[in-house]
Amino acid sequence: MPIEISWEAGAPPPDLDEAVLREALAAFLAVIGRGGWGLSLLCAGDETLRALNRDHRGVERPTDILSWPYGTSPEDAPGAGTGPPPLLGELALSLERAGEQAAGNGWPRDVEVLRLLAHGCAHLAGYGHETPAEERVMLAVEERMLAAAGVGRLYPAPGDDP
User: Fold this and answer.
1) Rounded CA separation 72/138 (Å)
2) Out of 84, 96, 137, 146, which residue is the most buried by the measure of CB atoms under 10 Å away?
3) In whole angstroms, what is the distance from residue 123 CA to residue 67 CA?
4) Is the Cβ–Cβ distance between 43 and 95 less than 8 Å?
């Protein structure tokens, strides 16, 4: 199953390269032990993410990324054993949120998009951040994914001054 990317605007904005996103997503999937699996990504605006957030989570506000996991093992994912690799799930990303957060974080939007995609892929693989311990594990997984895509450390190391 390929990595499918849809653009609400019809095409990626000039600062985002779809081939780079595909390569990064493939690297992320390999890091989480799902190399060769497929996923679907919608890159949209705040209003679309607001509607999806409302419809699927009951939260009436835009968000940066949403994830819908389909299966965390080959046996329980759609398409298992029937030919192409299974589909891990779907992601929806707000390009507006990514731009605002990138400015706040002091890095370019393409880096923030990769950070958010790593976060979404971690959720698709079953990682969460409900407790501090879960959050530490998830951040470590995200850092490994980002490193595999050539993105240096974004999060402070434990013990670093904020």
Assistant:
1) 15
2) 146
3) 7
4) yes
Contact 71, 78 (CB under 8 A): yes
- Residue 77 has what pLDDT? 52
The answer to whether 110 touches 20, Cβ cutoff 8 Å, is yes
Tokens representing 116 are 């958010």
Distances (CA, A) of 56 to 32, 52, 117, 122: 25, 6, 19, 19
Pairing of strands 38-44, 3-7: parallel
What is the token pair recorded at 124? 């698709």
| pTM (two decimals) | 0.89
What is the torsional sign of CA 32, 138, 92, 66?
A: positive
Question: Which tens digits make up the pLDDT trace of 63-89?
Answer: 999 999 996 555 555 555 566 678 899
